[in-house]
Amino acid sequence: MKLKKYEGVIYILPWLVGLMIFTAFPFIASFLLSFTNYNLMSAPSFVGLDNYRTMFENELFKKSITTTFIYVFVTVPLKLSFALFIAYILNFKIKGVNFFRTAYYLPSILGGSVAIAVLWRFLFSDSGLINLIIGFFGISSISWLGNPRYAIFTISLLRVWQFGSPMVIFLAALKNIPESLYEAARIDGASKVSIFFRITLPLITPIVFFNFIMQLVQAFQEFNGPYIITGGGPLYSTYLFPLYIYDNAFKYFRMGYGSALSWFLFIIIMIFTLITFKSEKYWVHYDGGDE
Amino acid sequence: MAEVVLKRIEKEYPNGFKAVHGIDLEVKDGEFMVFVGPSGCSKSTTLRMIAGLEDITGGEIWIGDRCVNEVPPKDRGIAMVFQNYALYPHMTAYNNMAFGLKFQKTPKDEIDKRVRDAAEKLEITDLLDRKPKEMSGGQRQRVAVGRAIVRKPEVFLFDEPLSNLDAKLRVSMRVRISQLHQQLKEEGQPATMIYVTHDQVEAMTMGDRICVLKFGEIMQVDTPLNLYNKPANKFVAGFIGAPAMNIVEAELISEKDKAWLKIGEFTFLLPEEKASKVKNYVGKKVWFGIRPENIKSFETNPNEENNYATGEVSVVEQMGNEEFVYFYMAGNQFISRLNPEKVKQISLRGSYKFWFDLSKCHLFDFESEENISL
Predict the structure, then answer these.
(1) Which among A171, A161, A178, A165 is positioned nearest to A88, based on CA atoms?
(2) How far is B99 from chain A (nearest CA, A)?
(3) Which of B80, B56, B83 has its CA nearest to residue B70?
(4) Potential cystine with B27: which of A57, A83, B33, B181 (Cβ 3.0-4.6 Å)?
């Protein structure tokens, strides 16, 4: 009988242990470490808010955070619009639509992987496939990864290309809108464009909201792509903030400073998430669905 | 003001399924026409073709003096009320009603006037600021009707608008829609209304005329009373009326210079007036149809000699003002509709003697199922 009481706890124990070791502990530890100087060799020494103070004086920090903001605020809206656009098209009743849905979803299964990043590097290299194709049309080769102006574009493109998961969620939301609303709107005389902006879009705003927050959080944490493809270069043009954290923590073993940077990123993400939540009441409609 | 004319319209789906088989129909200007039929009879499809929501694969649709085959829904001068209301969930009742007018470039004050007039007519003025979620089913449906009214359409199309409502509300909405039709007529803006339902009570009570459909074909178009009293075929006879007409197999025989109907071991004398119409069917099998109210208790007609039959009563449903008596006779189940004040209590599961009023019966050809006794 006594066992019965704790039976449930036993079931969730594996997860609980994992959470403690891999999430809760690093979370708390990094917070504490962010107030210390720690190089893995000697014991951490308390330095107060020094880490937080010095980061704002660092030029690379400023460069990195600016690059990250540009990256986030370009890729997130682009990726979401693209995902919605494709979902909208895949919602039509056309022949072979299931094939297209799968085809368009595939990149996002592969997208996060290191292999794709490597492939991306290959595609956009100076003698890569992309240059080969544009060369075919008589355009001279572009240094996609070597030119600071294009490198950030190449990295951003990789993210936008992985629009599959928000697309699938958008598609589910679009399918939820009853056909009769579109029919009523057609009788009311709304054009395709007005139907999209006045009926479809308002009704899926809860999903736009969800996808926006998810994408925002993920974009701020992007690491794989730039790390593998450009290594942050050239001239730090793709040096996203997580790369800066990584370099400090694992290249220069400035664990205290790295922890402080992580917490700074956490706060930034938190602020933008909160702003999004605050703005919810002005543009998100929770009236649909229920029917 | 417009009449709606369907000329041999057809609907064939890409997979080869033919839903509508060349329907010809004329709905007069200002008429209330009801499409009725069992599910799958393509009544909604036909309505949606008139609305322009479904393309037609053959024939022509005329609204007023235009062939509208190629005209988009918004320009057909129609308004439609949907079964699931189809209100825009993120808009208030007011905006739902005003939505279409905005696209017609109607001036703001005119929109406001029309919406408020319609709201008043439907008693939903106090709901105008609410969103659909904050309204009951009946209120939503009234807003949906309001959205149709403000467009001032020439033709109203109703696609089973009441089937999502509970029974009581359905009756009051039914009356309201009939009133609306009447009211528009009195205001000098008579509107043609086409109303789809599978509920034959709605059809009977609302329609000026009823079009009975089966598998994409018209079975009969007539006034409610004519459908009831003079059904053109076995299908209409069985579909219109509740409880349904009793229809059983019978044989027409001639004996002693008179025509008789033989059902199992029972024979019934066919009145002269009916007999003369079915002379050619003597010796043949026919369908015999008789409405429940024309099967009476033996007590009510003591002077008649013929057409009595004893049935085994299985169920008696007491409705208060009438009684539905289910009984078996010659292996067939029949329903009789009796007036409880005029008959003694019928005991459940016993024999009882009924009198069949054959002057009101219908006979249908066994093959074609056409009514041969009209």
Answers:
(1) A171
(2) 7
(3) B56
(4) B33
Domain range list for chain A? 52-283
* Across A169-178, A223-232, B41-50, B74-83, least confident range: A223-232
Q: Which residue of B has its CA nearest to A185?
A: B100
Q: What is the CATH number of domain A52-283?
A: 1.10.3720.10
- Cβ of B103 within 8 Å of Cβ of A189? The answer is yes
Q: Which residues of A touch B (CB under 8 A)?
A: 178, 180-181, 183-191, 194, 198-199, 202-203, 285, 287-291
* Whether the predicted pLDDT of A235 surpasses 90: no
Would you call A187 and B89 a contact, using CB atoms and an 8 Å cutoff? no
In the predicted structure, residue B144 carries a pLDDT above the cut 90: yes
**Pairing mode of beta strands B351-356, B295-297:** antiparallel
**What gap in Å lies between CA B360 and CA B271, rounded to an integer?**
9
When CB atoms are compared, the residue of A191, A198, A290 closest to B133 is A290
Amino acid identity for residue B133 in this structure: K
User: Region A52-72: what's the mean pLDDT?
Assistant: 91
How confident is the model over B165-184, as pLDDT tens digits? 888 888 988 998 999 999 88
Number of A–B residue contacts, CB under 8 Å: 72
List the one residue out of B178, B191, B187, B108 whose CA is nearest residue B149: B191
Give residue-wise pLDDT tens across range A169-224: 999 999 989 999 999 999 999 999 999 999 999 999 999 999 999 999 999 998 88
How close, in Å, is residue A77 to chain B by CA atoms?
24
> How many residues in chain B?
374
Helices (H) then strands (E): counts for chain B = 9, 20
What fold characterizes domain B246-365?
OB fold (Dihydrolipoamide Acetyltransferase, E2P) (2.40.50)
CA distance B146 to B139: 10
The tens digit of pLDDT for each residue in A110-130 reads 756 787 888 888 888 888 888
CATH class of segment(s) B4-239 = alpha beta
| A290 band by pLDDT with thresholds 50, 70 and 90 | very low
